[in-house]
Structures
1.
Amino acid sequence: MLDIQSRLRRLGYDLGTDGVDGYFGEDTRKAVLEFQQYSGLVADGIVAENTWCELVEARNEPGERLLYLRIPPFRGADVLFLQRSLNCLGFNAGPEDGILGTQTERAILDFQKNAGLVMDGMVDESVLKVMARVTKDGELHSSESKIPDRNGGYAGGKSLQQLTVAIDPGHGGRDPGAASCPESAEPDSKKGKGRTGVSGKAASVLAEKDLNLTVSRHLAGILEAAGCRVVLTRSEDVEVPLYDRPVIANMAGADLFLSIHHNANGSPCAQGASGYYFCRQGYYSETGRMIAGHIVASLAKDLKIPDIPVLGRNYAVLRETEMPAVMIEPFFLTSGDLKKMGDIGDLAKREAEALFKGLKEYFAIR
């Protein structure tokens, strides 16, 4: 706790009158929430794995260390500053994810060549000073002036049939995710039947991890039938660590990463299809935003539910992947209308078909 508070205070967050006292009180919780909101994380006031990693990486100031391409890669606020500076100057450093990968190195070398510097891919304080001199007013770009994704976010190059798609069924094992409300699974008094789970057995509560996996398996079958190569981050009810999921996709050389989840809310009135794409401090993935938009629109149409505008987020599975990535939540498990949407097994198939239609519509745009 002292470490968390110390890092928050170094970043300028107000911890109240008690300051760094080792007690997670309301002031510390508010500071965590402010940090999460600024960083594009889930704003829940909980310092889980993703928030902790962001806190650790935020400590690195530009110029404090020598940056270059290595394995494991350099990560942190100084890398993010470098990427934003390069993109501002017109050298495409790729996604501004704070991870120094091959695309960022190519941008470094290109900048060094154009600036008359030694092309060694090494970035220290002297290189950053040269960047600062040629950056207009020393300002970083806004979201309106960012370097656009290749083809402006539209599908290009490979067709849908040529893709390797990584499907990530959220949660699993000891992590059940959200759950349906008990009242949504009550027996239908008119038909005298109880609601069934994805396995076909009677179930009073439906765990998100099970539905995520069922939908993912159906979607995998549809994509394979269409000619795609599919990689699942999990194919059974096991717990896969958060940061291992994008690694699986990266190692497989996937062209697209699709994380399947289902939403939840304290109110049974909440409903709708939602989607997320990578976004961080002004940078956003145009490709991810377009793919998420097509999928959400398809889900809303086929499942006859509202579509929630897609949102940019700095989630680990969206940031750590080396390919366009989206997270989709087809509907709210906690919706009071869940039992009206039909048998869960049939619903999972309809979800998968709608997901595929959304992808198909996106890749039809050239």
2.
Amino acid sequence: MSLNQFYGLSFDPFCKENQSVKNSFESHDQKEMMHRLDYLKEVRGIGVFTAAPGMGKSFTLHRFEESLNPNLFSVKYICLSTVTVSEFYRQLCSRLAISTKGGKTEMFKNLQTYIYHLYRDKKQTLILIIDEAQYLKTSVLMDLKMLMNFVYDSVNCFTLILSGESHLNNTLELAVHEALRQRIVTHYDFRGLNSTEVSAYVAHKLSLAGGSDSIVNEEALIALAGYCRGNPRIIDNVMSTALKYGSDLEYRTINGELMQMAISEQSLSQS
């Protein structure tokens, strides 16, 4: 018997493929990031959002994108690694369907012309999302600052969102990025789910699949919260494993012992 059948679930609610923006658990982190993103879309400028892997910042960006009116906002997503400035401009021009002919200077000019036309004539704001921004070279970050200079620096014509791991904050603190840092209008670093949110998160996920929160007892939830460090991805992985152990061993309730077995397996897979 499958774990879904055993626990009366219509699907595994902790499987990544079964996650949807519409039914997502609204954590404190997600609320705070959405508030800042909603503010950012109005004032434009730079927003920085950082977190450890698996905390849900990319998921929240997806939720934000789905909330936008496509007639007013044009969202472009780029996931960069250690590219050069010219490679960055080439990728950005390609995403905006702008010619990549010529060198860096020509592409820079074409990008600013296009962004200003979009803002002034079409009344549409570009929202450029750069994920994995912790890998951006200093030269690219410096050019991003220059790309945002419009009409003698008197107006923000587009929104730039830098999303990455927490050590991006250390990079931005360097003196060479002072001018870029002054343009940051909102900044949020994920804290992770607290113990109360972990319990609510698990209950929410189980309910989506038609399950009861009584499937997992308090002892198991305490063990889960202590191990996961507030990370939703780790919670999902451990819970899927715990449900598998529980169905295999025919435990109707996931207790502390089963949860510790699942945690041990997760720890081994990460070592």
3.
Amino acid sequence: MHWKRLLAAGVVWGIAAGTASADLYSLFSSPLPPGPGTVIPCGGPLAAPVITPTGVKHGENVFDMTPAGWNRETFSTRAPGRYINNSCDDPYKCSADRVGWVTLEYLYWATQGPSAPPLVTTGPAVLGPGVAGAIGQPATQPLLGGERVLNGLRSGFRIEAGAWLDDGGQWAASHRFFYLGSRSEQLAGGSDGTNVVNLPQVFSLPGGPVQVPLYVGFPGLTRGTVTSSVQTQLFGGDTVLRRALRAGDAFRFDLIGGYRFVHLGDSLADSFDVVSATLPGPLSPRLMGEDSVRTRNDFHGGQVGFATTGRSGRFTVEMRSTIALGVTVSDLDQSRTRALFGGFGPAAGLPAVPGLPVPGAPPLVLAAHNQSDYFAVVPELGVKFGWEPINHVRLTFGYDLLYWSRVRRAQELYALGPTLRTDTTDFWAQGLSLGMELRY
């Protein structure tokens, strides 16, 4: 029945000629099946299926198709070429062949460093006690603090896992998580009684704030040890649904909606141990103390945005832009301890002012906690370039910028005394990413 083969060829040719897509032309003009007597194994190479156009849906042609050699019923597809040959150059157009993706990226990001007051200072001893190493003196040099801290680059990672929710690749769900390793700056040192090492202290008196140097070391007066540190940590993620508004061979545009979470933790701590520089250890008065401030900021909010992808051969470029509106839940913990053992007075290098222990008194201990909620906005922008060396695998290189409108940072709240500031500030993180994506 050669006329049937000729009729089938005519139907296929008519469909190919009637469509504006060169891709459909190349797909529909595949060879006819072998002649009578030749068996096509089920699941083998398919050729010249019976394809019937049924309309347009979401801007794409929809077909009913019965592939030759398949022992199954007629079904609908938006990508008939997938059943004519075994190639699939576009993971979005052939998403039914690939049910999901996993991306692992190395991050090299910088974060906005907080401003910290001078935590440990030094200066020339010739200025005398109360002046040497004091904040505001021209010769005073900060050993830690007095500027923005924790402002450098650090490594981290980001992982994303997603899945297509329909055969046409119109809907997808994904979850991302990123983590930046903790960054800290530390000072551990002291004085043997021949140099000036000062911990600036501020007390609120009736006449106003008063600066009282606490000399861990001062020639002929005190000697001791001091440790001081600042630390920060950042991580977060989101869970979103994606809906394709436009999907083609070279361009895709998705709407994004879902939930965003970000955590920023900061801490500041110092401790000291001071004895007399002129008395033997067992006879010397001993002053010990510590200060600690810690903040934990957690953002929870709804997120909307878009993602676009452009493709040229095996090269891709993606842009993702989102904005999340929600609340920052900020926890603050503070502790402060001062303890004096064995005596008090000039031998300890400390004037008798409020806020410091007196002889025979128990240690002064302050512990406080509070939680505050703030409305916040967290936008994000990312650009990523990709190259696919083989099918199913893409190597990526990108840049990301994350902004957070309102947080509390421990280093900026500490005011060198028992009373903390109440300020909030903004925050950003930005940097480069290098990754690999696997579609399966």
